[in-house]
Write a structure and sequence with these properties.
- By secondary structure, the protein is α+β, with helices and mostly antiparallel strands.
- 23% of the residues lie in helices and 30% in strands.
- The protein contains 4 helices and 11 strands; from the N terminus they run βββββββββββαααα.
- It has helices spanning 143-157, 165-171, 174-183, 186-200; strands at 10-14, 18-22, 28-32, 38-40, 49-51, 60-72, 75-86, 97-100, 112-115, 120-123, 139-140.
- Strands 1, 2, 3, 6, 7, 8, 9, 10 and 11 form a 9-stranded antiparallel β-sheet that branches. A two-stranded antiparallel ribbon has the order 4-5.
- The relative contact order is 0.16.
């Protein structure tokens, strides 16, 4: 019986042999990684090489995080953002590594480490068998594990938490508006004032 389309938090045993890589000039293509090392950028006018060694090689458990369609030249390829898992403790102390205890739910045979810093975009065909059917998942993460991995992804990608609407509701005051206004450039102040005046009209 064929598996289902992968979802966030599901764990698969795959070999990410086709991944999306980007050169320093931001040309992005799908590459078949036959062996570790450098690959030449596929953009005809580009002579740059890309170091593909950060991509985790071989068949290992990977966590599905997001799905998308990737345009490689004129074709669209279904892709999944995946985070590799390993039972090796080499990266255990890094802030971008998250330990996951093996359970019946996640299907892992040993305590494993999510290598968030090695997140990659993988061609959807890596999650299919020879008949193009989706593979069966190995297991799935608990909600708390997904929350902790998301925190490490934000740290790795340099995303800072921004105040949400509830924060503004609780902290809104003339003093706060005046303080924020003071940080704006002169042109932004002018635009903001005109916008506020329009609201009164």
């Amino acid at each position: 019986m064929a598996g289902q389309r992968p979802r966030q938090g599901w764990i698969y045993m795959i070999n990410p042999y086709r991944v999306s890589l980007q050169c320093h000039d931001r040309h992005q293509h799908i590459y078949e990684l036959v062996e570790p090392g450098e690959v030449n950028c596929k953009t005809t006018s580009c002579s740059l090489t890309i170091n593909s060694s950060r991509v985790f090689r071989g068949t290992h458990p990977h966590i599905i995080w997001t799905s998308d369609e990737f345009q490689d030249t004129s074709d669209y390829i279904q892709t999944f953002t995946a985070i590799p898992l390993t039972s090796q403790t080499t990266f255990a102390g890094l802030p971008t590594t998250y330990p996951i205890t093996n359970t019946a739910r996640n299907g892992l045979s040993d305590k494993s480490y999510a290598l968030v810093h090695q997140v990659c975009t993988v061609d959807g065909n890596c999650f299919k068998d020879a008949s193009s059917n989706w593979l069966d998942r190995k297991g799935q993460l608990d909600k708390n594990d997904k929350i902790e991995i998301e925190k490490r992804l934000k740290y790795f990608l340099g995303f800072n938490d921004e105040p949400d609407e509830d924060w503004f509701k609780k902290n809104a005051s003339p003093a706060l508006v005046q303080k924020i206004y003071g940080y704006l450039s002169e042109s932004d102040r002018s635009v903001l004032l005109n916008s506020l005046l329009d609201d009164f009209d």
